[in-house]
Amino acid sequence: MSTNHPGHPGGHQPYPRPYLEPAANPTWIGRVQPGNYQPAPGNPGTLPRQTWAVPAAQPRRSPGTLPLLLAGGVLVFGSLLLVVPFLLGNTGITGFVVGFVASLIPLSVVLLTVRLIDRWEPEPNRLLWFAFTWGAAVSIAGTLLIQPVFALAAPTTSEEAFTYFMATVQAPIVEEFTKSLGLLLLVLAARKYFDGPVDGVVFAFTIAAGFAFTENILYFGREIASSSDPGTDLVRIFILRGVMSPFAHAIFTGTTGLIMGFAARRWHSGYAVLAFFIGLLPAMFLHNRWNSMGQDFLVDYFVVQVPIFLVAALGIIFLRLAEGKLTRQRLLEYARAGWFTPAEVEMLATTRGRRQAIRWAASRGRAAQMRAFIKGCTALAFTRQRILSGRDVPVHQHDELEHLRAIPALRAAVLT
Prior knowledge:
Blueprint: H1 66-117, H2 125-153, H3 159-189, H4 197-226, H5 230-243, H6 248-264, H7 269-292, H8 297-336, H9 342-348, H10 351-362, H11 367-388, H12 393-415
């Protein structure tokens, strides 16, 4: 049965609102209000027909993420003019080089994790680069500029009291604020790609990875430059920061990204700003708790910090499973409209099914084509989710038609 809505191929009337297909809300991650629900546009031909009519009226396209990337590039360049001399002044050239190389190890661990989280519906590389450079340069520069204000308010009764204040008050507030500003810019200027909690976690982890990378250069390089036993002290600080806590900043900022991602599900710029400030609270709290660990560091680490890490890991796994359920439901709706077979939906909606499909395609020399087909179908499912969420519906309906136009060709590339 064709279940098209006006303006889409076929032109049949939709079911009367607030009709909502059974199981259209597979989990809380993809809730759809009945008033926003629209049946999927029907396929006017039979599988695998590759052409169909396109509506004459198309919405006006926005400049996309180009303004964000240009502004980000300018900010990064200006920030490096402040950050690089600061690092060299504290580490020296030798310390800087050693710190840079050593910092690549924990950075690789975090970015590999980001890649694993982001594999289901990958974010554009240009936005991930924006997030990383924001964390590595802009947020560091912002921290350096704001720190002196807090230093004026810090207690001066002793060096210990001053250091403790800067570590437990200044660092959590300033660092989380400057890192999360990048998240706010992404959700406001690239909201097409920032539309759920997984996106929030991915962008937050990437920003935090950049921040920790630059901070590690400082810490590692400073041990080389100022220690009487640089080798031993470098190993000690590397174990602490590179082995025991490579995800510390990621988890802090990840809480902000998670909350902002949930707010992005029901788009409104006011929700984004409110979620930004709400999300800062747990991030600052976790950062404060980490920096407050003193003589009982190992006890606090294993009793408090390790469980927090495990809860974060389980939460990310749950979000990934929810993404699969969401993909399955949205593609089932397209299957009922004639775009996919049930077998294709089952293959596309599970990690195991995707792996088997890629292995089968690889045996025929079509692995790259199968990956492109999977990526296109996943993008289609999430585009439909944006439509059903009521976010920028005309723009995303245009994107939906573009995806539908491409799907038959992507399928044919695998099968031929």
